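ingest -> validate -> predict -> emit
validate: passed (alphabet ok, no gaps, 126 aa)
predict: started
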Amino acid sequence: MDLNVLIVDDSSAIRKILVRVLSQTDLPIKQIHEASDGSEALKIVEANDVSLILSDINMPNVDGLELLTQLRNTPKWKDLSVVMITTEGSQAKVMEAVQLGAKGYVRKPFTPEQIKEKVLACLKAA
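emit:
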């Protein structure tokens, strides 16, 4: 199963790090898309067959929680795997993301192993 991954983060540096981390794994990644906020992410999901989203919580315009809410409220995307990657210190926001349907989360700074572990867990659950 080839993965089309969407990385959503307002920091281009974090997006580049995640692209590098994903490319260093032995995961069957076909394509990696990038978005700087939730509204851009929704356009990419609409136009592409995305199988996994790695999303920040705190972003301008449409944040990660709103992105997750919109995905879950759209029937064709309600089961799309989403992992939140965040500096968010508030456990409440992280728990809200999980309640909204995030398959997990990773706190920044993260290790490549943490990212791979979460992605593999999503694939097994799918």
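Strands lie at 3-8, 29-35, 52-55, 81-86, 104-107.
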